[in-house]
């Protein structure tokens, strides 16, 4: 009976994850805590999930990456990668991004290249940003440290008493699969849209809001009388009044105090509003806005702004900037912008004040597409030393001369001692939410296994694939993981699929390694839906994509990836090793 109750609770958890209104961290820690309170997980098991060696290694890797992502290497090489035809540029960019992502956090790689690719004019950014996101995923599947998903699966394996996964255990399958997918990606470059790339067109993709002050002489006069219908480069599309929208706006519409006027067109033409007294653009007069820098940013996956509105936060005080416009994918958001919950990946056009780039919370909240960098880059000498130290740690771990955890700990200490990484930066960007998700997921996975729920699911899997043998069950586990990673997050998919995979392998009496590996590869197979993977969200608004753009470009990649994984895994990791 307990097994069925646990499965029922997991179904509720999955439904809430798909719904997306509640943070995965809150859901996972609530479920893990609930299982502990119900006696399904002991205190020792619960606490040990958060001290798992593989989880500690992942945290160290992410902290070290904070310094490595400041290397100028990506900036220096990005321009040279784009020379030549579109397919050739995609091939070079994909290969380079995959190579770097094999050893660096993929969000750091995409974040570093997002600005340069958005600003370059050799090719439309929309032709490059989805390939960049895909390539960062493909590079991640080639090594243990390439993506947090691999380290998460490793932590599940260690927790279940299986041997730890090795640094290059993923390479024999991951490398050929990555090469095949990058080639397909280059050949399918025509499937991606060629969205506008100029700076002027980018800024005109926003709406601008202006509030009418109570003492403005415009109050009590019509749109026609105030001459608001024929502005240079701007068009009045609607008025927000007392929580209601007036759209379209007729020439006889009389303005009231407190009205919010919503304009579209060339946002850089905001000077057209200068001649209207009492018309304020996001709390500042047009004069002040013109003296500011217009900076475009993308909300990061670590941002405190996610799922909050502009009215929930004192945005101007937090960042010394006013929000001029918001864009989500190819959609320009308008009307009551202050009440729209922001999402990871939203693109904001900011009127940045002189202290904007001095705020310490910028790198946590935003990826900057134009303007100055957030943090000073390393010098060439510093970059060489940091990258060489990281390469040495990876090599010593691969040769089994020094545990990865120990090597990263030494490197972290060296970065702190040299000043290349500071305690303040570590504190601001500590991956607390990821630690909560993975630690809680380990507890949940243990409950699924100990309660008999995993064995129950394995029995159903065996019955469903009995006529197809163990290979059919392997395909089934992979497809379940693939579906989960498209619907929820990659780490959540790994957490929910791993107990099923392990139970299925034991039900068939075979080596669990191939099942563990397809969970790792399947959890990184999110190519179709932009909302399930962090790097997709990062490029979604910057490239002005639609959902169908990911479906068109991602379907050939997903098919190639899946065929490659399902053909190679049983060959490289046999069910019954000799």
TrEMBL record:
One of its GO terms (biological process) is potassium ion transport. One of its GO terms (molecular function) is monoatomic cation transmembrane transporter activity. Residues 194-279, 282-368 form the RCK C-terminal domain. Keywords: Membrane, Repeat, Transmembrane, Transmembrane helix, Transport. The keyword Transmembrane helix applies. It comes from the Bacteria. Its main location: membrane. One of its GO terms (cellular component) is plasma membrane. SUPFAM superfamilies: TrkA C-terminal domain-like (SSF116726). It is a multi-pass membrane protein. The keyword Transmembrane helix applies. InterPro entries: Cit_transptr-like_dom (IPR004680), DASS-Related_Transporters (IPR051679), RCK_C (IPR006037), RCK_C_sf (IPR036721). It holds the Pfam family CitMHS. The chain crosses the membrane at residues 44-68, 128-147, 167-187, 405-423, 430-448, 468-485, 492-509, 515-533, 553-573. It is found in: Membrane. This is SLC13 family permease.
């Amino acid at each position: 009976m307990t097994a069925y109750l646990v499965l029922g609770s997991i179904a509720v958890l999955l439904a809430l994850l798909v719904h997306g209104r509640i943070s995965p961290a809150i859901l996972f820690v609530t479920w893990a805590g609930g299982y502990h309170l119900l006696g399904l997980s002991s205190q020792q098991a619960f606490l040990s999930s958060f001290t798992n060696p593989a989880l500690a290694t992942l945290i160290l890797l992410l902290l070290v990456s904070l310094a490595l992502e400041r290397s100028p290497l990506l900036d220096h090489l990005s321009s040279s990668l784009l020379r030549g035809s579109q397919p050739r540029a995609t091939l070079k960019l994909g290969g380079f991004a995959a190579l770097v992502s094999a050893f660096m956090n993929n969000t750091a790689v995409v974040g570093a290249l997002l600005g340069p690719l958005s600003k370059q004019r050799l090719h439309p950014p929309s032709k490059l940003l989805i390939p960049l996101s895909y390539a960062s995923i493909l590079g991640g599947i080639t090594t243990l440290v390439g993506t947090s998903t691999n380290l998460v699966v490793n932590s599940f394996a260690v927790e279940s008493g299986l041997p730890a996964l090795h640094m290059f255990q993923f390479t024999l399958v991951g490398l050929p699969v990555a090469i095949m997918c990058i080639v397909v990606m280059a050949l399918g470059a025509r499937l991606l849209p060629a969205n506008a790339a100029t700076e002027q067109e980018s800024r005109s993709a926003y709406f601008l809001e202006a509030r009418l002050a109570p003492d403005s002489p415009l109050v009590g006069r019509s749109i026609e009388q105030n001459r608001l219908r024929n502005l240079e480069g701007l068009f009045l599309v609607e008025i927000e009044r007392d929580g209601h929208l007036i759209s379209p706006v007729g020439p006889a519409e009389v303005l009231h105090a407190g009205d919010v006027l919503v304009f579209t067109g060339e946002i850089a033409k905001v000077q057209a509003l200068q001649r209207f007294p009492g018309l304020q653009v996001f709390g500042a007069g047009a004069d002040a806005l013109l003296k500011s820098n217009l900076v475009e940013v993308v909300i990061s996956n670590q941002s405190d702004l996610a799922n909050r509105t502009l009215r929930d936060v004192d945005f101007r005080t937090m960042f010394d900037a006013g929000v001029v416009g918001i864009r989500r994918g190819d959609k320009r958001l308008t009307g009551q912008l202050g009440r729209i919950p922001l999402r990871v990946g939203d693109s904001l056009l900011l009127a940045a004040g002189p202290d904007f780039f001095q705020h310490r919370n910028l790198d946590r909240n935003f990826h900057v597409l134009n303007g100055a960098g957030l943090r000073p880059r390393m010098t060439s000498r510093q970059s060489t030393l940091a990258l060489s130290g990281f390469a040495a740690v990876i090599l010593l771990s691969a040769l089994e001369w020094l545990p990865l955890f120990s090597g990263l700990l030494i490197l972290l200490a060296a970065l702190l001692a040299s000043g290349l990484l500071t305690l303040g930066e570590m504190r601001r960007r500590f991956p607390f939410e990821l630690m909560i998700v993975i630690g809680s997921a380990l507890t949940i996975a243990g409950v699924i296994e100990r309660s008999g729920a995993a064995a129950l699911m394995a029995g159903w899997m065996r019955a469903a694939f009995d006529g197809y043998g163990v290979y059919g069950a392997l395909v089934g586990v992979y497809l379940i993981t693939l579906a989960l990673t498209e619907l929820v997050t990659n780490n959540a998919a790994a957490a929910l699929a791993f107990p099923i995979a392990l139970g299925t392998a034991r039900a068939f009496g075979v080596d669990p390694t191939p099942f563990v590996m397809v969970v790792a590869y399947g959890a990184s197979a999110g190519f179709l839906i932009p909302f399930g993977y962090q790097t997709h969200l990062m490029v979604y608004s910057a490239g002005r994509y639609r959902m169908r753009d990911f479906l068109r470009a991602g379907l050939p990649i997903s098919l190639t990836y899946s065929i490659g994984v399902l053909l190679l895994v049983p060959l490289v990791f046999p069910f019954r090793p000799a």
